[in-house]
Amino acid sequence: MDLIEKFVKGQGKGGQAVNKTSNKVFLQHAPSGLSVECHATRSLTSNRSQARKLLQDKYNSIYNPSESKTIKKIEKLQKTKKNAAKKTKRKYASISHNDIEEV
Question: What is the domain-level CATH number for residue 10?
Fold first, then answer.
């Protein structure tokens, strides 16, 4: 991959440790123009690996939607919610049907 990688000073809470060190990672994929910033931890190496994962997920969700892990997770959640709704609907339909017969 053609990546442009920059390490810049972070901002926000953390005091001197954040203000002095350049542990915020900025990654840009040159051919597509996609960019990602990561400043999740104080460690440069972990921020770098997280930024690469974020960029890969972002790239896959745009250019390879069938292989994207994020899209697969969303589809799985939608499927489970749909199945739960069907189950609830069947449950309450049978309860209301039984109540009508008893009266």
Answer: 3.30.160.20
